[in-house]
């Protein structure tokens, strides 16, 4: 697939995770990506960046999101900088931005200006809440979009505290990945119409879209939200992580009775299947799993898992 988008030219104005991830995916599919940076602005400063290799490397030579791309520095607040960007736009297919709504217009680079320069352009604006949302201009990060969408309520630890899953869901799944899907659809539509289009991609709405199955069951079928925490969110003892004797962690994913039976056999603990049939005995099952996994090192359990997979296949 590395030549699938050969000949497609992408301009990326973004600097944070969703935009660069989207343009990285397009570059990996063969598109030529040019990142436009502000010559007067250093890479974004994050609290704790000096202690976090990933944040400290943002935009540097070891940043995986910038591999395979070219870059140019343009001051978009200056007339020469804006003119240079419009020259790039005339020959481009896609422009990616993650500025807050209205910022491109304030720079004199709004959709009407861009479309006049290139009617075939696909503009993808990745925002936190959406261009027309009531809180469109509000600043935010992944955790805010997770909270507002309702997803954070579903992701909890054993004590019921909401847990932030890095920035994988908002920035990368609902932002970058969905942006790529929308851009590819817009390029496909352009083949029929000859016209580009403006994509308004809200990461909050994207997360809600990822939750479509859960939301439908909750709102339409009457299943309580808590029921979704009963299996896939560590509430079920056989679908959780456990610490091993050497301080490692092993992930256990036995949902169906047949796989719980396989786990019980692998642990030489046949009583586990009976415990798992009754939710009131799940705490006992969890304690038993914690004790058993803590007795041996991770390498032992990795080997045991391989032997189990061999038997299943």
Notes on the structure:
The chain has 313 residues and is α/β, with parallel strands linked by helices. 43% of the residues lie in helices and 12% in strands. It is built from 14 helices and eight strands. The chain has helices spanning 18-28, 53-56, 79-90, 103-106, 111-117, 142-149, 151-154, 168-193, 203-210, 212-219, 257-266, 271-276, 282-293, 298-312, and strands at 9-12, 32-37, 70-73, 94-97, 122-127, 198-202, 239-243, 249-253. The strands form two sheets. The chain has a six-stranded parallel beta sheet with strand order 3-2-1-4-5-6, with helices on both faces. Strands 7-8 form a two-stranded antiparallel sheet.
Q: Summary?
A:
This protein has 313 residues and is of the alpha/beta class. The protein has helices at 18-28, 53-56, 79-90, 103-106, 111-117, 142-149, 151-154, 168-193, 203-210, 212-219, 257-266, 271-276, 282-293, 298-312, and strands spanning 9-12, 32-37, 70-73, 94-97, 122-127, 198-202, 239-243, 249-253.
Task: Supply database-style keywords.
alpha/beta; 8 strands; 313 residues; two-stranded antiparallel sheet; six-stranded parallel beta sheet; 14 helices
């Amino acid at each position: 697939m590395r030549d699938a988008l050969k000949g497609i030219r992408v301009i990326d104005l973004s600097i944070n995770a969703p935009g660069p991830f989207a343009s990285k995916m397009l570059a990996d599919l063969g598109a030529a990506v040019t990142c436009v940076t502000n010559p007067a602005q250093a890479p974004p400063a994050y609290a704790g960046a000096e202690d976090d290799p990933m944040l400290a490397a943002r935009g540097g030579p070891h940043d995986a999101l910038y591999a395979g791309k070219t870059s140019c520095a343009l001051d978009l607040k200056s007339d020469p900088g804006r003119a240079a960007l419009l020259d790039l736009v005339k020959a481009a297919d896609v422009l990616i931005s993650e500025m807050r709504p209205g910022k491109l217009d304030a720079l004199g680079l709004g959709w009407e200006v861009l479309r006049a320069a290139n009617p075939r352009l696909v503009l993808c604006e990745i925002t936190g809440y959406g261009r027309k949302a009531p809180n469109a201009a509000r600043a935010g990060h992944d955790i805010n979009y997770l909270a507002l969408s309702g997803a954070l309520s579903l992701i909890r630890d054993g004590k019921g505290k909401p847990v932030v899953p890095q920035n994988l869901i908002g920035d990368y799944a609902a932002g970058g990945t969905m942006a790529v899907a929308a851009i590819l659809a817009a390029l496909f539509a352009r083949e029929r119409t000859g016209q580009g289009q403006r994509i308004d991609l809200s990461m909050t709405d994207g997360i809600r879209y990822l939750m479509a199955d859960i939301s439908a069951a909750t709102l339409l079928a009457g299943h309580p939200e808590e029921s979704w925490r009963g299996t896939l969110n560590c509430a079920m003892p056989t679908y959780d992580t456990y610490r091993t004797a050497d301080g490692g962690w092993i992930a256990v994913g036995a949902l169906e009775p047949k796989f719980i039976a396989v786990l019980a056999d692998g642990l030489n603990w046949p009583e586990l299947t009976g415990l798992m049939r009754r939710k009131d005995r799940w705490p006992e099952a969890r304690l038993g799993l914690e004790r058993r996994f803590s007795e041996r090192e991770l390498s032992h359990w990795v080997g045991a898992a391989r032997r189990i997979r061999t038997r299943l296949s």
